[in-house]
Amino acid sequence: MHQNMDSHFFIDNKDYAATSLALSNSTSLTLVLPKEGKDLRKLMEQKGFLQNLLEDDGDGAEFGIVNLSLPKFKIHSKLLLADTLKAMGVTSLFDTAAELDGITDEKPLFVSNIQQETSIALDEEGVEASAYTEIGMTVPQISSIQKSFI
Fold first, then answer.
1. Does 108 reside within a domain?
2. What is the average per-residue pLDDT within 119-138?
């Protein structure tokens, strides 16, 4: 069980309670607890919900002592982002006509896949988080067949 009593920004309204734990490198872990009978997915779909959470002075935010008690957990995710990016209109990267000058002299060069992995763990000692994004690039191999083949 992770326990923390410290000064934090927090929001406590009719729909949810939320606070953030400061991590290194000016990042934070934002925790949201929906109130009884409230659906977190529906809250997240509300316009401005996430932006409000990420602003220290968001609607209803206060600064004060927060007594936080959380069970230990570890979460790992792996997201394949190529299809999502294409659906958002980022298509030229994935095309053989992509202009990725300065990476290599090989042409054509284009992105074949993008994936992101994240991991977060919370225990008695605190929070540990990591993430990386991998971009796979492809240079098509061109074979010239110069002899008899079947």
1. yes
2. 89
